[in-house]
């Protein structure tokens, strides 16, 4: 069946894209993992990588079944696709659940991370803060004045915030609070939440898109099965112990 063959090619491409999306989520979340403590947030990404790998294997099974036009192989192909479809529905549900939890997670952790900032001998959490402030162009939790309540600010006693708060276009910025126009005005908490929720939406949309593709595949396989079941010559060959 040409339709099924085309679908199998699409399935192989989908498998690669799903794995890419899952890996992207892992890599991006690694830059923000100090701002949330619930590691279960990565479960949808783990599942989507597993689904992508499974889709690749399913594609190979489907190719073999199509080449031999085996009813048993095609039926197995449909059943596995159905199971993966259910898994992707679970990914979508989990994605929405954890997307809703991101704001609470970040709100719970971000003050502790900022209060532990060490600009002299920066640890991983301190480097994460500098990275986020530069990447998202933000400063502090709600704004740059939040730095005044941190241990680091009180210890340095120079009335300055980290240089990562300085606007990228400025080369002479020292982070001094006497020149607030040199600093990013937006706080990081809202932007971190927005970024993490966007990443989770990539997983949700990818799962939805490929669930739709799998429905198409199941339909194609069922059509092929129905055609073969109604073909007398095919039935005769099956009864004779050969494949059509």
UniProtKB/TrEMBL annotation:
UniProt topology in membrane: Multi-pass membrane protein
Annotated keywords: Glycoprotein, Membrane, Transmembrane, Transmembrane helix
Gene3D superfamilies: Tetraspanin
Pfam families: Tetraspanin
Record's GO cellular component terms: plasma membrane
Transmembrane segments: 7-27, 39-62, 74-98, 199-226
Protein location: Membrane
Family note: Belongs to the tetraspanin (TM4SF) family.
Assembly and oligomerization: Interacts with claudin-11/CLDN11 and integrins.
Function field: Regulates the proliferation and migration of oligodendrocytes, a process essential for normal myelination and repair.
Name by which UniProt lists this protein: Tetraspanin
Protein source organism: Irena cyanogastra
């Amino acid at each position: 069946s040409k339709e099924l063959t085309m679908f199998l090619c699409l399935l192989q491409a989908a498998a690669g894209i799903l794995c890419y999306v899952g890996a992207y989520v892992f890599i991006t979340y690694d830059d923000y993992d100090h701002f949330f403590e619930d590691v279960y947030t990565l479960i949808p990404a783990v599942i989507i990588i597993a689904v992508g790998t499974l889709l690749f294997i399913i594609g190979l099974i489907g190719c073999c079944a199509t080449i031999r036009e085996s009813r048993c192989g095609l039926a197995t192909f449909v059943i596995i696709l159905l199971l993966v479809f259910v898994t992707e529905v679970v990914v979508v549900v989990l994605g929405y659940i954890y997307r809703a939890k991101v704001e609470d997670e970040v709100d719970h952790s971000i003050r502790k991370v900022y209060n532990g900032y060490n600009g002299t001998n920066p640890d991983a959490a301190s480097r994460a803060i500098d990275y986020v402030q530069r990447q998202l162009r933000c400063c502090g939790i709600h704004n740059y004045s939040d730095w005044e309540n941190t241990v680091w600010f009180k210890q340095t006693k120079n009335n300055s915030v980290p240089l990562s708060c300085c606007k990228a276009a400025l080369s002479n910025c020292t982070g001094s609070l006497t020149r607030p126009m040199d600093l990013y005005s937006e706080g990081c908490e809202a932007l971190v939440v927005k970024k993490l929720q966007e990443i989770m939406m990539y997983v949700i949309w990818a799962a939805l898109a490929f669930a739709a593709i799998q429905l198409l595949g199941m339909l194609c396989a069922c059509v092929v099965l129905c055609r073969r079941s109604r073909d007398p010559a095919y039935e005769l060959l099956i009864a004779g112990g050969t494949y059509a």
